[in-house]
Design goal:
Helices cover about 40% and strands about 15% of the residues. The chain is of the alpha/beta class. Bound molecules: ligand SAJ. Ligand SAJ binds next to helix 7.
Length: about 400
């Protein structure tokens, strides 16, 4: 099939490569000229995607990166994979999705199947995307939803073996979309409506947000009752059924977990239902940085003024470079506001932010493990007898007891 994937971030690029690898003729389109320039030369920030893969697929003529609207005029399938963030007031921001749909509708000059992978609330395909295409084009389109399930850097669950939920606005759209995904996904799950598919994706990540908030509240209880939350979670996890371990942290980052639940609570409230758990979970997770700072101050005899603090890892989770919604940035800001001298070390992050250091330092008063990448060697702090607090959101032992 002739396919164009709109948006070449970690989701769109993964689909472009997956579809091209099984023989589809794929155009990877993005409005970001610099990104297209880099991809054409095999350069990408997405973990798990190699330069050779990008160059070989382009050499085989199965994959072409483009910034030119004319290139996708006559494709059979359009896959929309653009960001759906939150506004400053943490409401759904569909501006990018709306603009992309309008751009595509105006440029397509053939009947096509439109597949939306961008995460949004139930009804987005039916009530936003479909009307845009019908009002901006005279061609006949079919519509389907296939919410993205890409986990960058996850080598176990990849595009091919991660089940994919599909549903079209018509049975024909469902069948065509299902056949397309079956060509590169082992397990395609069709559901009765795009609303079910859209809702399932939101619920998957709301489940995580609420459970992470629960364990963050549990950590506050553990601190007050003087027991280890991590030890209690590990003990609870010995139950082989009916339990799933989550770990306390300084908060929830990324473009999925802190964002998707607010799309669900927005849709709920538009329908007159108060999404209490989601709102409380958002609040608990957003407040964790302040809570942890209070605990650090107590640990350091109630004053961080002038203290030299180094943070190990600032991306939103281990082994990736993504900074979106990373609570570590808030931690740096809040510690600096109360007079601490904060530096940070994260070789995966290229950020022009005050305090960047190029290694773990021993001439600091306090080391904070926040986002431990596999490449980190904490023996530097051990040998240097640095006081270290492990704030990491996992069960791994880095040489010091978990602090949260
Ligand atoms: N976090 C905790 N405690 C935990 C787990 C995570 O505080 O027990 C924090 C992390 O530090 C991070 C944030 O939550 O800041 C998000 O972590 P995440 O493991 O949920 O990773 P994400 O945001 O990359 O979530 C993605 C999602 N994938 C898709 O939306 C397609 C999610 O559904 C996956 O479950 C998750 O990857 C995964 O399991 O890796």
């Amino acid at each position: 099939m002739k396919v164009c994937v709109i948006g070449q971030g970690y989701v769109g690029l993964t689909i472009s490569i997956g579809a091209a690898s099984v023989g589809h003729e794929v155009i990877g389109f993005d409005i970001n000229k610099e990104l297209i320039h880099d991809l054409t030369r095999g350069k990408t920030f997405v973990p798990g995607i190699s330069k050779n893969t990008l160059l070989e697929l382009q050499a085989s003529k199965k994959l072409r990166f483009s910034n030119n609207q004319n290139d996708y005029k006559n494709v059979e399938i359009i896959v929309i994979a653009v960001p759906t963030p939150l506004t400053g007031s943490r409401q759904p921001d569909l501006e990018i999705l709306t603009s992309a749909a309008q751009m595509i509708a105006k440029n397509l000059s053939s009947d096509s199947l439109i597949i939306n992978e961008s995460t949004s609330f139930p009804g987005t395909l039916r009530n936003l995307i479909k009307p845009i295409f019908e009002s901006h084009s005279q061609y006949q389109f079919e519509f389907a939803s296939a919410p993205e399930r890409v986990d960058p850097g996850n080598s176990k669950w990849i595009l091919k073996n991660t089940p994919r939920i599909i549903s079209g606005l018509t049975s024909s759209a469902t069948e065509k979309a299902s056949n397309f995904y079956k060509s590169f996904c082992d397990n395609v799950v069709t559901v009765s409506s795009p609303e079910v598919a859209e809702a399932a994706k939101l619920f998957e990540n709301t489940f995580r947000q609420v459970n992470i908030a629960l364990v963050n509240e549990f950590a506050q209880i553990a601190n007050a009752l003087n027991f280890s939350a991590h030890e209690a979670v590990a003990a609870a996890a010995t139950k082989p059924f009916g339990f799933m371990a989550f770990y306390p942290s300084i908060g929830v980052g990324g473009h999925c977990i802190p964002v998707d639940p607010s799309y669900l609570s927005y849709a709920a409230e538009m329908a007159g239902v108060k999404a209490q758990f989601i709102n409380i979970a958002n609040k608990v997770n957003l407040e964790m940085v302040s809570h942890v700072i209070i605990r650090i101050k107590t640990e350091m005899n109630n004053s961080l003024e002038g203290l030299k603090i180094q943070i190990a890892g600032i991306s939103y989770k281990s082994n990736i470079s993504d900074l979106r919604e990373s609570p570590a940035l808030n931690l740096i800001s809040e510690l600096s506001k109360i007079g601490a001298k904060v530096q940070w070390f994260d070789p995966l992050v290229n950020l022009d932010l005050k305090g960047r250091s190029n290694c773990l330092k021993t001439d600091v008063d306090l080391g904070l493990i926040v986002t431990p990448h596999d490449t980190f060697d904490f023996s530097v702090w051990k040998v240097g007898k640095v006081k270290v607090l492990d704030l990491s959101a996992d069960s791994k032992n880095y040489g010091w007891p978990k602090f949260i």
